[in-house]
Structures are given as structure tokens and as C-alpha cells.
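Technical note accompanying the year-one report. For the benefit of new consortium partners, we illustrate the data format agreed upon in the data management plan: each record pairs a sequence with a C-alpha cell string. No post-processing was applied to the example shown here.
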Amino acid sequence: MAAIRQAVTADLDLIYNPEVPAELAAAAFGRLFPDGPPDFAFTERLLTEVGQARAEAMSQAALTDPDSPVALTLAADVAFLIGRDPDGAREFLERARSLDDAPGLQPRLARVDADQGQLVQAVVRADGYLVGHPQDHALDLARGLWLARLGELDRNSARACPCGSGRSYPECCQAAGATLLARFRDRQATYELREAALAYATHRPAFMDAIMASVDEWVEEGALGQEEVDWKGLAEGDPAAQVLRLAVERALATPIPDDDDDDEGHPILQAFVEDRATPPDLARRAQDWADHALWGIWQVEEPGDPGTLISNYLSGIQIYAEIPAEQREGLRRWGILLGYFVPVDGVWRSGSVFYEATPAEGRLLAQFQLAFLRHVGLRQEGKKGPIVSWAEAASQAIEELAWVPDPGASPLFVSGLASSVAAVMFPALVSHLRRGREALPHMSNTDGDPIEWIEARLHLTDPKAARKALLRHPDFEVRDGGVGWLGRTMSAAEHAQAQAQLRSQGMEPDPDAPPGRYSRGTLDFGTTEVSVTVNSRRRLQALLELLSDLGHPAQVVAETVTDVTEELRQRRRWMPTPAPTFPGPEARHAWLSNLADEPHPGLGGLTPRLAAQREEYQDRLEVLLQEIEYQAGPGPSDTDPTGLRQILGLL
């Protein structure tokens, strides 16, 4: 193995060293891939790194062997990527196919098709290839772009067909394009696979025992309440049992320990695949599920139809996934999905249900998973192993608000490890999310009192005289027709924060104004009663004592109490505060401009405008912008978060 690594390293050095003649570099490329052309993504990265001149020289040198499929494929990639010559690339690829129809040629031909406007043919080729190679994420993403273009053409079909036929899209490719879009959206095979696998397990006591034990694990972790374990509802397709269904789907893919074997056992899905009674198509799909399912924490990058672009939060792997309409409802860009995706006939499809989370919750979940990954690394490699080093660096970046999922940035070992670890600890991740939503901060006012929102009516013998007496006290003032009860004076930092809040709402406070005082409550005087609003029981009692000391004793005749903590507990989704709305584009632009010039602690005290000019703050700024865009919510928004990127010069 060491000798092979040394040989590979030596050949790569020959390719990348500009002093090495192109003939030797081309020969080294051929030695690296003796069995057929490499992945397109590999060649694309290599050609970008070596530069145009060396890439073209290597191509010419390789073509001294015109009967080599690897040489012809290299020439095709250079023609397509460097020379921008799709016709030349197609010619090289067809010659290579006549010699050896290697699997890696179809993805390249699909890209050439798409480049020449033949979107239907491109998707057909990609569909056929991805059925057997769902792990080709680069082609999956490319197909997603082509499908999105077909979807746009389907919605706005009064234009020429891009294939170059000269006919309109409805007259030419629309019917074929609609068929491909329908295939992508069709989840029937997915449902049939899940039901068949579940039926297979439920008719075998040993497998059903394993599923029930796995569900018990969810209950013990706190990921499922005992009341949610509704087997009858699951059998009847009750939507309320979807979370239980997710637990069962994980159990189907989890290895079952075998007492008679030393290995870790095999999942139920593998037994389903190997059973002779399983139809071939179901067996193939079940094998893809067992081999390729991706569990984890996912970030929504582009919600859409027919597919949604998502990234694994830790590994950066991107997939273009089919998510059904009922799961897409309310889906926000940059939101977090806790769940899994599985390839079915080459299309990545979501599981039965997701746990949705905010970006802030996603960071907490990621740190929790990283702690588990670090523990795995410590056991396997020790303190200085690559897993431990990567997990610690990633956790620190998340802590500093500087972590953005980045394809290709994480080490190769992370992609598979992150998914397998997420599958193992998934109940714990769900429980962690739930506990975080149940754990509420200590709610107190500026006097340190527990918050209760109290609206009370007080009976007074002479409300008019009581009002005059209060206004002679230094803690009371006339405010909006009523009487305001003032608390302590703000500190300099609190004053600056209050002014920043006003500016974020489109207002311009006086920069020379002294720090104001907090409000303790308000009083509205009537003929015989006064209406009081305060946010703690102690404040109401203090007001009654003060009125009595001033010679105007009051009696509470009615009150309404709102338990703020309990109200927050009921809002377990932790949806962010909605962004403000504005009467017109000018006010919206003013608000966005204020945001651009507000210092932010996540940027080390810099404003977004200043951070945009400093490369070392790019990731931190992106995290902040994603938070703002997430808060804007799905669909059109008066806050137009994209406008902030324009103001900062990022578009």
C-alpha cells in the first residue's frame, strides 16, 4: 500500500511540476488511470490547477496514442473546459466510446449536451448514469441545474426551444421535458420500497424485535415521547405517526448484532436485498438505501421545484434533492433540516419527515455532533489524529460564527464519517434539539424580578389627586396622555445598544442625547379607576405601597396575568423575530443601509460594510447575512435581504 501511495504521489508531482515535459506528465496521467477515464470533477480540478498552457500541452502529448480512451477523454476535457469547444469535445468522446464505452464518458457527454442547449438529452444521460452512480454529486448538481431550466421553460414556454431546432419549446421538447420533471417528482417507488421493507421486517419476529428496541432507544434518549409511539397509527398511515416512521426507517438500516458472528451484524435492509423473494427492482433500490443513505444536519441553500439544493452542515457535501410539497411548505433558505436522504433510481429523496431548526440551533447541533466525532477520533487515533484535529478546528470556527458549509473544504474522510456518526447518534441529536427548545432562559426585568405581564385596574378615592401626587415624584412623568413610571438610568453600553436598535428600525436618534431611563410601567387614569401595566408582581406591590405612602391608597379590583415563560415554552419552534415591513422601497433601503453600518459583535465589532472589505471576515459576514435572510422568511419579503448583499457589493 505504501508503495502504491508513493507511485501516485510521484506521478502527481510530474503532472503539477511545470518543469517536467508535457510528454512525461501525460504518461503519468495515463498511469494514474489504467482502467479508464477519471471522474470529470477530478480532471476539472486538475486542469484548473495546472493552467491552460500545460493542460493543452498534456492533451497534445496524450493524443500521440490515438487509441487510448483515457487520452481521448483528457483531450475532450481540455477542449470542453479550456478551449470552450463542445463540438471538439463531443468528437473526442465519441471516439473514446467506440473503443471502450466506459461509464465516465456519459457524464461528460451529458455536460456537452447541456452546453449545446440539448437539456432533455443531457438529463436523460444523467438519469441513466446516476441510477448506478448516485455518489457522483457533481453530476447530480449539474442535472439539478438542467431540471430547473426545464422547469422554468415549462412555466414560461413561449420561447424558442434551446436545443437549436428553430421551433418553439411547446412544439419541440416540452413533452419530453415534462416527462423528465414528472419522473424526478414521482415518489411512488420510494413509498413502495419503504412499505415493502417494513412489511418484510414486521413478518419476522427477530427483525420486529430489533425495530422495537431501536424505537425504545429513541424514547430513552428523549427523541420520542411514549405517547408518540403509535404502531396502529403507523400501520394506518396517520400523519401524526411520521416521527415514529422516521425512527423505524433508521432501524431498517441499522446493523443488528449477530451473536453467532464476530462482526457488527447486518441491517434488515441487507437481509431484504438478499432474500430471493424480493423483486429485483426493490432489491436494487434497497441496496442503494443501505449503501448510500446520508444522515445528518443539512442546510437549505436554495428551496425550489422540482428540487432543493442542500448542504451537509459539517462535510459540505451538496445534493439536489427531491423534497415533497408537504415537507417544503414554509421551508426557508438557510434553515436547518435534521434527517436523511436516500437515492432512489438515481434521485436523492428525503425521508418521511424532517426536524426543522433555525441556523442558530443548527450550530448547536453541529457542535454536539462534533463532540461525538472527536470522541470517536480519540478512541481510534489518539489526541493528534486527523479526526480529532478537524473536529476541534470545526467546533472553534462554529463558536466564532465563522463556519459556512463548503464543498471540498473538509477532508475526504469526513463525508462518510459524518453521515455514519449522525445515523448512530440521531436520536441523541433529536433529543438535544428538543431539550434546547424546552430549556428557557431566566426571564427577569431590569429590577431582577421574574417577569409576569400584569394588567390591573385599581380603585382610587380621588384618581385626579393621585395623578398629581405621582407626577411630583421624580420617577413619574407624563407620557402619551398617561403617566410613565421610570426605572434606573441606562448604562453607556445599554444606551448605545438602544440607539442602534432605533437606527435598525429606520429611525435617527439624537447622537448627543444622554442615556435615558428604563420604564417600569404605565398608568392610565380614569374618573374612578386607574389602569396599570407592569411586568412583575413586585412592581405592582411597590406601586400600591407608594400610592399609600402618598396618601392615596388603592385597591386592586381586577387583573390579567400573562405567564411570559409559559408562552415562550409553547413556541417551541423558536422562529426568529419577523423582520420589519416598510411603506416603500426608500424606507426598506434606509433600513438595509443602517444594517450595513451597524457594528456587530459577530464581526469583532466591525460593521458589515467594513467586514465585506476584509477577506478574513468573509465567513463571519456570510453567517450574519444568512441569519438575516433566514429571518426574512420564505417567499417575497419587504426586507429584501438580497438588497443588503448588493449594498455591500457582494453581488
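Partners are asked to follow this layout when depositing records. The first strand starts at residue 294 and ends at 302.
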